[in-house]
Write a structure and sequence with these properties.
The chain is mainly alpha-helical and about 375 residues long. Helix content is about 80%, strand content about 0%. The protein contains 15 helices and no strands. Helix 1 packs across helix 6 and helix 4 packs antiparallel against helix 7. The protein is globular and about 55 Å long.
Length: about 375
């Protein structure tokens, strides 16, 4: 599990670097808020559109090699975005990074499910927290490199991905041992997918992404707009994301004990007013509210991932690709929409509007049905 979580960390570190790059790229190329948000959309859509396809591939054939390949490609793409000489080339580099993210997540989450055993929410939370920490470290790492070395220092964004990819290559055979052997498949068909539950859950995931990716994109720009330095803006974003990592560690055990649906619902009840306090009150109280909102919003990532797998038994990779891909993709669409709001109205309104996502998600959570009973063995084999 540590190797899988480390891969998740390195993959999302690359993706998490993008918001820290935006203020520097915006100054260099005189980008509008919409153009800056379009880079986030490029990263998220390139990942979300093909992530379910990687999930289908993972379920049908197994593809452990996607783990190191995805990590390396994500880092290389984001490093290229930092040094690309024009906006179109930055856009292409960000698209490439998104493909790397898409390649890693379905296979990584599938094997995290295998390793977790009966405590799936806790195990998946440990896997997810690697990504949360990566998202949190990404802005700090990228900002530190660029402040010290200029945008060319962004080339070093590729280093963590390459190092972790090498470690994953060394672990592939060991990880493959956790996949159920074909002889262990049971003749009885797995429970039918709970399509209504999965559809409602994906709606919840999309609404959560309005807050997650909206704040992920606009917190640095909002703090700079209020007169703070870029380093301070990056620190506030990192606090939001690190709090999300802590929330993820707590969310899994809470879901195992009290149930997936109550934990999911109450996290949104808490997050909605906290986002409003961040924007309206501001200052130290606002930053504290943002951190708590991060714990509430991001902390349910592992819980929703497990629920998607339970609503689609026997198709763990596909379920993971849909859940993660939709979260990323709709978050990118939300970021672009909020960028247009910032350009046409003002940035404050755009940041405040991120609270609408969790507010609406509360009501959708009330409609979620129980998941089908889970089988002990997933009918999927893996190949290296």
């Amino acid at each position: 599990m540590a190797a899988l979580s480390s891969g998740h960390l390195a993959t999302d570190l690359a993706q998490g670097s993008l918001p820290a790059l935006l203020p520097f790229l915006r100054d260099k190329y005189d980008l509008s808020y919409t153009m800056a948000a379009a880079l986030v959309l490029a990263a998220t859509v390139s990942s979300s559109l093909i992530q379910p396809a990687f999930g289908v591939w993972s379920d049908a054939r197994g593809a452990l090699w996607l783990l190191p390949a995805g990590v390396a490609l994500a880092g290389a793409g984001m490093a290229g975005a930092a040094v690309a000489p024009s906006y179109p080339l930055i856009f292409i580099a960000v698209l490439i990074a998104g493909v790397g993210v898409a390649a890693y997540h379905p296979e990584g989450s599938k094997f995290a499910s295998y390793v977790s055993g009966a405590r799936r929410a806790s195990g998946m939370s440990f896997f997810s927290v690697g990504g949360n920490i990566g998202f949190a470290l990404g802005p700090v790492y990228a900002s530190s490199l660029i402040l010290a070395l200029g945008l060319k220092g962004g080339l070093l964004l590729a280093v963590p991905g390459f190092l972790v990819a090498a470690g994953l290559i060394a672990c592939l055979r060991y990880l493959g041992e956790f996949a159920p052997a074909p002889s262990m498949r049971q003749e009885k068909a797995p429970p039918r997918a709970e399509r209504r539950g999965l559809t409602l859950l994906l709606a919840v995931v999309g609404l959560r992404s309005v807050a997650h990716m909206g704040l992920f994109t606009f917190v640095p720009l909002w703090e700079v707009h209020k007169g703070h330095g870029k380093a301070y803006a990056t620190m506030v974003l990192a606090l939001f994301l690190f709090a999300g990592a802590l929330g993820t560690l707590l969310g899994g055990p809470l879901a195992d004990r009290f149930g997936r649906r109550p934990v999911l619902r109450w996290s949104f009840v808490a997050a909605t007013p906290l986002i409003v306090v961040y924007v309206v009150v501001g200052g130290p109280v606002g930053v504290l509210a943002l951190a708590l909102a991060g714990a509430a919003v991001i902390g349910t990532f592992g819980v929703s991932l497990v629920m998607s797998q339970e609503y689609m038994p026997g198709r763990v990779g596909m379920a993971s690709g849909l859940s993660i891909g939709l979260a990323i993709g709709l978050g990118g669409v939300a970021a672009l929409t909020l960028g247009a709001v910032a350009d046409t109205i003002d940035l404050r309104t755009a940041v405040l509007a991120t609270a609408a996502g969790p507010a609406l998600a509360i009501f959708v959570c009330m409609l979620l049905p129980p998941a089908p009973a889970r089988r002990s063995v997933e009918p999927v084999a893996a190949t290296i």
